[in-house]
Amino acid sequence: MEKIEIILKEIRPEFEFDNIEDFFEEGMLDSFDLVTLVATLDKTFGISIKGTDILPENFCNTEAIVTLLKKYEVQV
What we know:
By secondary structure, this protein is mainly α.
């Protein structure tokens, strides 16, 4: 989970991502950030997130990202 928080801070260092319900609704991430996040997660964890999984609800908060990564058998 710490790696995810580090990645989020690298993408948008001006925000604190702890205890946020929805990064998109709060204006913390936009569609460009989502693309960057997916590419960074792919590279960091050696996975390839499928296009069908690239939905805002899978990246709306840290817990959603962890759930998605577990689907790809990533230990977080």
